[in-house]
Amino acid sequence: MYNGRTFGPCLAGGHHRVRQPVKKRLRRLLAATPAGPEVPKPAWIIMAKGAQQRHRWVFYYDGDCGFCTRMATGLSRTDLLGRLTWTTYQSLEDPPRGLSWEELDQAAYLDTGRGRLHGGFHAFRMLTLRLLPLMPLAPILWLPGVDRVGTAVYRWIARNRYRISGCRAPGVKPGRRERPGEQS
Q1: In the record, what terms sit under GO molecular function (predicted)?
Q2: What whole-number distance in Å separates Cα of residue 59 and Cα of residue 124?
Q3: Any bridge partners for residue 85, and if so which?
Q4: What domains appear along the chain, each with residue ranges and CATH number?
């Protein structure tokens, strides 16, 4: 009943009588629980982490291109949930399944798992579904016909990316670079 000063037993100071026994029981329970690696993690945490690792997308880009590197670095900063792996294709021993070194040199690729590869504009368009800050662009980029314009713009940028960035990585000559294990 409200008496003008407080409302209910918690605000009247009666909460101490309720809270103390609960605290004591919690302390006893926590003291009896083994600490360290013996404590099994709940199954839903294990499953969530496994699902996140399984469905992690991989973005391949040209690490010798200053423009590509700046774009990948900027986009990786928008990956607030850490759901993508950003990889220069030059760091790979072998090209990803279904791609050649020439294809990787011509466009960025996004591997969404299960053998699904998206290249160029389509890779960027897929990123709008996974990167939170890019999600407002998704409805525009997925409109019918936008892929034709987007693909043309991406091809132009890809052809002129070294002129746009003004440089390649130090010591790298234009053209196809040799991969580990390849001979001229």
Answers
A1: protein-disulfide reductase activity
A2: 10
A3: 58
A4: 55-165 (3.40.30)
